[in-house]
Structures are given as C-alpha cells and as structure tokens.
Amino acid sequence: MIIKNFLMLCIFFALNFVNQVDSRELSIQQLEERKKADLERAEKRKKRGKKTFSKEITLTTKITFVSMERKTPPVLSNLDPILTDEGFYGVKLAIEDNLTTGRFVGHDYKVSFHQISLNEKLSEEFEKLIDKGHKIFIVDLKEDEILSLKQLKNFDDILIFNVRSKSDSLRNEKCAKNIYHIPPSYSMLSDALTQYLVKKKWTKWFLVTGPDQNDRNYSNALKESAKKFNIKIKQEKVWDFTSDLRRTAGKEVPIFTKGSRYDVLVVADEKGEFGEYLAYRTWDPRPIAGSQGLKPNSWHRTHEQWGATQMQNRFRRESGRWMTEVDYHAWTAVRSIGEAVTRIQKNGVEDIIDYLSGSSFGLGAYKGVKVSYRSWNGQLRQPILLAAPRSMVSVSPQDGYIHPFSELDTLGKDKPESTCKF
Amino acid sequence: MFNILLLLVSIFYSSAVDASKAYITNEKDNTLSVIDISKRKVVKTVDIGQRPRGITMTKDGKLVLICASDDDRVEVRDAETLKLKYHLPSGPDPELFVLSPDDSVLYIANEDDAMVTVVDMNEKMIIDDIPVGVEPEGMGLVGNGSVLVNTSETTNMAHFIDTETLEIVENVLVDARPRVAMFTPDDKEVWVSSEIGGTVKVIDPNSKEVTYTIGFEIPGVNEESIQPVGVRHTKDGKYTFVALGPANRIAVIDQKSKEVIKYLLVGQRVWQLAFSNDQKTLLSTNGVSNDVSFINVDKLKVEKSVKVGRFPWGVVVSP
Fold this sequence. Notes:
The structure holds two protein chains of two kinds. Chain A is α/β, with parallel strands linked by helices. Chain A is 37% helix and 17% strand. In chain A, helix 3 (88-105) runs parallel beside helix 10 (325-344) and helix 10 (325-344) crosses helix 11 (349-357). Chain A is globular. The termini of chain A are far apart. By secondary structure, chain B is mainly β. Chain B is built from one helix and 28 strands. Chain B has one helix at residues 2-17; strands at residues 21-26, 31-36, 41-47, 52-57, 63-68, 73-78, 84-89, 94-99, 105-110, 115-120, 125-131, 136-141, 147-152, 157-162, 167-173, 178-183, 190-194, 199-204, 209-214, 231-233, 239-243, 249-254, 260-265, 270-275, 281-286, 291-296, 301-307, 312-317. In chain B, strands 3-2-1-28 form a four-stranded antiparallel sheet, with no helix packed on it. In chain B, strands 4-5-6-7 form a four-stranded antiparallel sheet, with no helix packed on it. In chain B, a hairpin with a 5-residue loop joins strand 4 and strand 5 (63-68). Classes of the chains: A alpha/beta, B mainly beta.
C-alpha cells in the first residue's frame, strides 16, 4: 500500500515536472483551450447584446490566391508532413487582420482561393480570373510559371505578389513593375549567411550543389557572396546521386567530402534530397550551412523575438501546425495590401504600387524593424533569420555592415547592382 | 566629525523620503524582482506565473497585480509578503493593463485575442470585453477614468473607449506597432509611441486629431533601431521620457514644445519606465542587458544600473 502510494506520488510529480518543462511553447491543447474560451466569450458578448464597433463599408478590396496542384514528391524525410495548404492560413490570418483594421475605417476585404489542377493550363485559368474582374493576386508559383504570366493580355492591369520563388532573375533582368517579391532572393539569403560566416571567420568553404535548377541558382548566389566577402571556396562538388540516402549516407558522405581543408560545408539542396544527411558524416568534423544546418530563412519555428511569439501562437491556433516561410510570405503580402489600402483609402492597382514602392510604406512584420519594398525591383527589404533546426543562431544583417540608406540593403543586389528596369 | 554627522543625516534623510519599492517582472525566467529604491538594490526575487509582463499596484500599495501571459490570468499578490492571494480572470494572453482611479475596475489588453477585457475587482469577475484591433497592448486612462485609450500593434490604431458604455467611440490611425498610450498630467493630450514607426504621436483627446508627430535622430544609431515604447510624463509638465528600445536610450522631451532635449544612454533594449514617488528618479527595464537603470530626473543623468532577472519587462513603484 505504501509503495503504491509512493509510486502514485512519483507519477504525480513526474507529470507535473513534464508540464513545467513544457511551458515555453503553448501546446496545441492550450491553443485549443484559448479557442474554446474565445467562443464562450463571444457567446456571452452576444447575450449582453453589445455591438462590435464597425463603420459603414465604403471600400471593398478583393484578393485572389492562386496555387498549382503538384505531384507529390518522393518522401525524403519521415519527419515532416508534406503540406498541400502552404500559404492558405497565412492569407486567412492576414485577411482577418485586415478585416479587423477595416472594421474601424469602413474597409472590407474579400479573398478567394484558386488551385489550378494538374490538367488545367495556368495561363488560361489566369485569364479567366482576370476576365471575372480579379486584379490583386497572391501567387504560390515557380519561377517559370510566374514568368509565363507576363504574356497574359491584361498583365499590365493586375498586381502580383510572389510568395514562393527566390529566383534572382525574376528580380533583375526579368523583373516587372507590378510583381512584388516577398521571399528573400537567393542572393539575399546567401549574403545573410555569408555575413555571419565572415563574422565567425569561417571563410574557407566546401560548396556542394544539388541537381536542380533552384540548387544551381542558390549555389550561384553563394559564389557571388563568396566573391563579395572574400571567401575562399576550396572545393566545389555537385551531388547527383539519386539513391535514397537513409541507409547509405554513412558510406557515401565521408568519401564525397574528403579532400581539401575547409571551415564549413556549404550546401545548396532546396528539396532536401541529401543535405540533411551530410551532418556528422563528413570526413572532417565540420559544421553545415546553407539549405541545411545553419539556414538563412525569412521565417522559422524557433523565431520568438519582436512579437513573433504572438504570430506563432495565432497561426498555430488557426491552422494546428507551424507557420512555414510561404505562409509568412502570404501573410506579409496580404498585410502589405491592407496597410496600403488603410493609409491611402484607395485600392486601385496603380495607387497600391505607388504607395508600396514609395518611402512612406513600412510594415511591422515581427522582424524587429519595419519591412518595406525596394523601389527598384519590388523586393521586400527584410532581416533574415539564421536558424539551426532548434535554435535561432543570429539575425542578419550583422553588426558593422553599414549602408547609406538602410542596413537591410547590404543583403542581396543593391540598387547600383540591380539589372531590373521597369 | 561634522562630515560624518552630515553623512548620517543624509542617509537618514534619503531613506525617509523614499522607502518605496520597485517591482519588476522578468519575462523569461518567470520571476519578480523587488528593488529598494533608496538603496538601489534588489532585496527580493520570487517565482511567479508564466511569462510575466504588465505589472501594476493598487493605490493603497497593498496589492501587486501581474499579467501572467502564458497562464492566461492575472496574479494578485500581497505587496509585502509577495504571496499569491488570488487570481483574476483575464481572458487569453493578458499583456498590459490599467486600474480605474478608484481601483474598482481593471482593464486588460489580451494580446493574442484582439480584446480588451474588463474585470470587476471586487467581484473578481469579467464584466465585459471589447473587441479592438489585432494585438492590443497600450492602455492609457484619463485622470478621471472616463476614457480609455488602447493601442493595437498590428492594426496600428489608438482606440478611444468610453468607460461608461464600454464601447469604442473613435479610432485614430497612428504609425506602425503602437505600444504605449499615456495621457499628459493635464489630460489635454495622449501620447502614443510607435515601435516600428519610430515615432510618438500626440493626439488631442477631444478632437481625436494628431497634433504632433515626434521623431528621433541619434548620431551613430541607425534609424531602424530607434523603437519608442515606454512613455512617462513628469507631473510638473516639464519633461516626457520615451524609452527607445534597441537604440538603448531614453529620449528626454520638452512636454510643451515637443522638442527632444537629450538622449540618455541606458541598458540594452529599454522598454518600460516608472518614476519614483517624488519623481526624482526614473527607472527603466532593459530587457537584453537584464538590468534596471536609475535616472536622476533633475540632472537628466543615468546614475546606476541594477541587475535583475532575465528579460525584465514591466516596472511599478509602490506608493
């Protein structure tokens, strides 16, 4: 009996302990409780018969989210679920934020989601949407798909926010005045990472590039950053093995990484086909950075500074999962539109472009400083988070990189280097 | 000999004028630090609820109220023993709050929830909630308690709420991420700090018009790290102090002309401010350097910094 009681006591304390250790992040259960409390409160409020402040609607802004159905890629990790709803909750949350603001100033926002299926043609479906009067688009599309939109007959009358592609050419020689880019470009990401590696004096690199076009784009940006910040790329290799590495990485990677002396293994593997399997398997004991290991991101689950905790909580409450970069980009795009409409009280495409590219636009986006758009190519100017899988390592621009206009412009192609001409 | 006597007298005198204490919430280690203001020393540290942020006291100095944000409630503690007396319901994620002049009503900003919750202090019950903008934070109450100004960080507005009807009467658009709203001692102005916008807007509470926009420029500090948060006005109408976050400085502003007179270098990421009762000392919470700075208000000089817990957030001084 005594033993039994003692055991019960032990279990009780153990459970309590677990609860306490778990306290930093709100669990889904806690979030659900908050959700429930909200509903109960709303119910009570209704009973009290109180009205919510709302001005008469004088302006309605329609926003359209367009994505493509994709073939499911082979599962490369057993950990992360393959998401088919990236961007959706980002838009949803931002629309709610816009509506809250709108309620006080008499603005309404309407959103529609369009997924173009595998057997439909992007341009045809897009034309249909434009014909129906859709003008402001958030697009979760790849580089070539975005480029194809420039051929649409009414392209000049619409406004597009890119929330996925990091391609530098989209922001340079292939840029367009009415396409805004929320994701940091590859050159911004590589500069952000390189500034930090320079600070660490890890200036000798072994660069590994994956087989895809995106990997090559990332790798080219890394090489440019290396040149800019006087980094020596001691060795460069392309990874073109196609086998599943889960059982063989221990044999392949040491041989692959044997060779010259370097400080850090920098990898460009956007899909995550092999990058995850490099750590702890290299010939020399070296850290990994780039698309895996220490990774430059626009958003990350470890981010909790500058009010990001609120954003993470609100997002998880809405979606039941963590916010991804695409979700964050979609949120930022919709909030940018909302901020512009709130300030200028107009929602014409030209009006929004003038405001977003002007000097008075600034948005709080949980990055510690306001984010804004580069007038010369429509790129969102933003701090970049350098994160390991379970900890935030640093935020770039690093201290000491100064700039006459904004230190954020030390990341990526600055105005004089840009080849974008509107 | 005379010197020693003078010293003794001055020690006695100084402790007699200000025996009050400052209470500091440490957001990241769930503790409360108590500072003896005259000794400028931490005299006590106690464990409190999770993610403590906003802190205030009843006028009689008997109770300390703390927003335990991750516990979704307000802790009420005995100011002397610091023992937990009871919890108040607050709605989810309470961040900052303000007590009515007679301490009968507590107005709480629920950051995760886009609500201002109104709690009856005697009944210990929620009596109403007011839907406001996204991520409400700043809570400024006019002297007689009839008007409450709440700021919403993502909606970028100052909401004017009639505390009689508990309804919004007007919304004023301010710069990005408004953090604090504070009425001047004569109640003729309400100052709203915008963290990301980098400005302080002065609003006329009658016309609800923005009458001034105060900007800040500090040589050698980039514009983006100037992030105004805490605002405190001296009662004599002379100065207003504005904490500038990661600029690590407090701006001293002429309350009448709205000119910035001076920048005081304090600890890292300075957010909230509180005066001692005689208003001769201003205390600031410096989140990143984990300390509290003491500023001499007459001399406009930073005199000392005292180490507290991890990420000090709120500060209140006992009467």
